Amino acid sequence: MKATTEQEYPHSEQGIVPLLPKTETKPEKREMVDTKDHKYRELDKILDHYRGEKGELIRVLHSAQKIFGYLPPEVQAYVALKMDIPVSEVNGVVTFYTLFVTEPKGKHTISVCMGTACYVKGAREVMDKLKDELKLDARETSADGMFTLRSTRCLGACGMAPVMTVDEEVHGKLNAGDLTGILKIYQEQDAGEEHDQVH
Asked: What predicted TM-score, i.e. pTM, was given to this entire model?
């Protein structure tokens, strides 16, 4: 019996996986790899710009987040390697500052208040309706990348319960029937912006 080698079965985060022949690589997978490589090349330009300069980690991470949209562990590790600093130092900065996110985030963030006043006036129904409208299950972000849905504690607008915010805009005295129209406002607004950019 032929012994299994690391070359034939490279390690991955999920365990040991077989290395597929190049001929079996699907076009869409190659496209994803190309896109990712392009993003790392962009990040390399930023890293080269700040190479050797102390105290620039936050600037580098901010630029990396603009490129990737968020800062997953592999991007944090790459920055640490290129800047010759511990991964723990990079992760410490990422987790300390709220401007950094480690999971994909939608263009708009919806925060539904789950404080006592909002909850008793139907916040759970609002949340369930939003999940249904955005087709969310365990995910927080819609498949089109438009909305990220989160629950939050008291927003300090109990007199308007139930309340949610979309980015910085407050929507109060909600019922499930209001939500389709509210989401449509942001969808149409973004569609208009894209149209203006094309023309």
From this structure: 0.56
User: Tens of pLDDT along 75-92?
Assistant: 999 999 999 999 999 999
pLDDT tens, position by position, 19-61: 444 444 444 444 555 667 899 999 999 999 988 777 899 999 9
Q: Are residues 92 and 117 in the same domain?
A: no
Q: Chain-centre distance of CA 58, in angstroms? A: 18
Question: Is residue 14 in a domain?
Answer: no
Of 94, 198, 69, 64, the C-alpha closest to 146 is 69
Find the angle CA(193)-CA(58)-CA(43) to the nearest 5 degrees: 65
Q: What is the dihedral of CA 64, 69, 140, 172, to 10 degrees?
A: 110
Q: Do both 114 and 83 map to the same domain? A: no
Residue numbers of the domain that contains 87: 24-96
Question: How many structural domains is the chain composed of?
Answer: 2
> Could you tell me if 88 and 128 lie in one domain?
no
Whether residue 167 contacts residue 150, with contact meaning beta carbons closer than 8 Å, is answered with no
Q: Residue 75 and residue 61: Cα distance in Å, rounded?
A: 9
The 10 Å Cβ neighbour count of residue 61 is 21
Pair 184, 136 in one domain: yes
For residue 167, pLDDT beyond 80: yes
Tokens at residue 101, please?
């996110």
